[in-house]
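Troubleshooting log. The previous structure file for this entry was overwritten by mistake, so regenerating from the original sequence record. Sequence copied from the archived sheet and checked twice against the printout by T.R.
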Amino acid sequence: MADPAPLSPVRSAEQPPVEKFREFLEIRGEKLTEPRRVLIRHIFDSHKHFDADELVADLHEAGRRVSRATVYRTLRLLVEAGLLRELRLTNRTAYEHDYGYPSHDHLHCTECNKVIEFNNEEVRRLREAVSLQHGFRASGHRFLITGVCPACSRARSSPRRRLDLI
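Regenerated output below.
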């Protein structure tokens, strides 16, 4: 089974992420420093799920010098600013774009750590129905299904290796 296509950004009149972040920082009395600018551009150049260590490694491979402390602090600020969303997975915290992307949910493989995005109208309708039933005004939700992806399932069911028999 092929992986579903990644979600595309929502096309709107919203300002670029770097400008939204600059405004957020100004309200807090902080500056958009060059390392923060490098980070936000690097993060929003592609759409993928990543953790802080992967981001540090990606930056290093790209020849961009940003300290680990700046990466961690900036990730926290980007979440507070509504630009990134934090996904608390089984054994790590991952980040993804929140700003400019449609509401969606996730499957997480606990074997290989793969994260698969999906959009399901029934989940959204259920959220609205449960919220209405309780007089609650929902502004969003997080739905994460954990399990084992098809590739890891196939690997698990393949014949045992000799070392597995010892």
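The first strand starts at residue 84 and ends at 88. Archived copy saved in two places this time.
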